[in-house]
């Protein structure tokens, strides 16, 4: 079973549609609006969608925004959000694999701090993010930067 992380590609749209349908249990295909947003992600470099591919299928994803700033010597900060893992592929370390990849990805882009907002963290999310070096500040986990 080949498993690796990478930025999403145009050809991932069907797998992502399936992933969102199965993980959210709503069973609704992407709307035209969601299709357009996905294309904008790929074309405009507004946001990266990072994925885990397992056996040629996308089984997990997260949104990744690297935001330029004038502060901190012009270094950007990053936001990682909307982590989603296919229900049939959970408890296999894919969330951690994807977050490790995402952290490396944004650090290579020069991010001085990484935020991972989580509204209602489950215990496993708290353990995973803290094990990866985050500290919890309210409803947000923070990697790097200065403690507030």
From TrEMBL:
It comes from the Bacteria. InterPro entries: Acyl_CoA_acyltransferase, Bact_Acetyltransf, GNAT_dom. Gene3D superfamilies: 3.40.630.30. The keyword Acetylation does not apply. GO terms for molecular function: acyltransferase activity, transferring groups other than amino-acyl groups; oxidoreductase activity. Residues 3-148 form the N-acetyltransferase domain. PROSITE patterns: GNAT. Keywords: Acyltransferase, Oxidoreductase, Transferase. Its EC number is 1.1.1.-. It is an enzyme of class 1 (oxidoreductase). This is Short chain dehydrogenase. The lineage of its organism: Bacteria, Pseudomonadati, Pseudomonadota, Gammaproteobacteria, Oceanospirillales.
